Amino acid sequence: MKKIFLSILTISAFAFYVAYQRMGWGSSTLPQLPGQNPAFTFPAFSNVFGNYKDGRYQGISVDAYYGRVEVLAIIEGGRIVDIEFLDYPHEQPTSKQINAEAVPMLEIEAIVAQSAEVDIVSGATQTSRAFKESLASALAKAK
Amino acid sequence: MRDTRILMGMPITVEIADPAGAQESINQVFNYFDYVDKKFSTYKDNSEISRINRYEIDEADYTSDMKEVLRLSEDTKNKTSGYFNIKDRNGNLDPSGLVKGWAIHKAAEMLFKAGYKNFYVEAGGDIQASGKNNSGQDWRVGIRNPFNQEEIVKVVQISNMGVATSGNYIRGQHIYNPHNMANNITEITSLTVIGASVYEADRFATAAFAMGQQGINFIENTPGLEGYMINVNGVATMTGGFKKYVV
User: How much is the ipTM here?
Assistant: First the structure.
């Protein structure tokens, strides 16, 4: 009897877990981050934007391992309106062959440019240290 | 209603598709990212993280946001066999690999709590999308071609989900393998992860990218995540469930 009860309990718990996992976000709420503080208060701000002097400011050239990164920050109306790359590491040809790992679910394809309309683009943008460092130095001049 | 600002050294875009979308709400999101930047930027001398790295603050006095980010960073490190590590080459703490996704998640939550249902928040190519776009469809997200920033190579449709891409488009190598600091990651160039929250997608994309070509296996084996990895030869590997999002 005890075993049956335990089995039912285990199956129920598993079913609940699966249902919980599949529910994802649902439409009612965003998920809570672990340990999220529900009493999060929004900080007060003043003069957040418009701190920079107008002009074009060149950042320092920074080593990005594969080459150097150097940016130009363009400030108009006190705000950054554009960041141009004066220098960035160029593609290096490589002959390294990549083997597909033996995971049966994985699928492989050659990438092909798409022409479909999209709302948003996901990609690793210029968040590299070198970029930030060069930009920070450019903005320091704009203060 | 849509607006873009450059904050934290990257473009941040907020779009609200609800008819009642207000510029004030979008501004609040930008202000929040600015607040996050001032607290977590290792490039600002007066940020809390910079002061912590100079041992100017006792651990007991860290702000609750800082404690949360450091705790989540530790959690991520444990869940990724140490591939996610906020200690940099000099031993300083740099939680930027976690903060972006965390901040997008929080920003999306702010909009949700403000009553919005249909919107996205995108920062530096990482996205949290809620509800539907202006056409009443799931949001259409393009994955950027790592070899040509003007192109996209895949389109996925998502709703109430997050997307994050780790990579090295400009060969900046902002991610390195903490288990082998001498060697930068060369064999893969872009790894996109889809998950319920951009926070999850971002932190695991960062860690999986650091694993090199094994990273896609890690994503495949992590429940709730799907991934699309592009190697240096322009060959993509996708997880088994990724296709259900592909347009």
Answer: 0.87
